[in-house]
């Protein structure tokens, strides 16, 4: 397998993601398996095993950082890019479901009260979940406000004429 210069990483983006995740798992000294799948839209790296909470980190900050690192390394020096998702023990799916429930409650409250509802600060990935989830919801709109790391989503009722 060809290597990327001095980095010791494989040439293919999905294999680069695998190599980085394996290095992270080794460095954290956790017993875990790494699986990487690729389709035309994205590369998904999954880590399953014992103590993967260490990889997830507080409020998902560690796994978000690892995901960004994987993305940057996967496509370093390449023009063509796609999304990279890193998950550990199903964290992303559970977190997405929790965020969608929170978005539903905020949309219901915005419609009931006629006021803007501010959600807790979220990562860019989590804010994207809210925007995508509520984009087709009648009567509400979403937008982000504030500066990182305190940037949050506002769910607002659409004003009727």
Rg over alpha carbons: 19 Å
Number of helices: 5
- Classify the fold: give the CATH topology of the largest domain: GMP Synthetase, Chain A, domain 3
CATH superfamily of the largest domain: K homology (KH) domain
Largest sheet: 3 strands, mixed
pLDDT averaged over residues: 92
Q: Tell me the β content.
A: 15-25%
- Number of E-state strands: 6
Strand order of the largest sheet: 1-2-3
Helicity range? 40-55%
What secondary-structure arrangement, pairings included, does this model have?
Blueprint: H1 13-28, E1 32-38, E2 42-49, H2 53-56, H3 61-74, E3 83-88, H4 91-113, E4 117-118, H5 124-134, E5 140-145, E6 152-157
Parallel strand pairs: 2-3
Antiparallel strand pairs: 1-2, 4-6, 5-6
Helix pairs in contact: 1-3, 4-5
Structural overview:
The protein is α+β, with helices and mostly antiparallel strands and 161 residues long. It has two domains: 13-89, GMP Synthetase, Chain A, domain 3; 93-157, 2-Layer Sandwich (Ribosomal Protein S8, Chain: A, domain 1). The chain has helices spanning 13-28, 53-56, 61-74, 91-113, 124-134; strands at residues 32-38, 42-49, 83-88, 117-118, 140-145, 152-157. The relative contact order is 0.12.
What's the quick description here?
The chain is an alpha+beta fold. The protein has two domains: 13-89, GMP Synthetase, Chain A, domain 3, CATH 3.30.300; 93-157, R3H-like domain (Ribosomal Protein S8, Chain: A, domain 1).
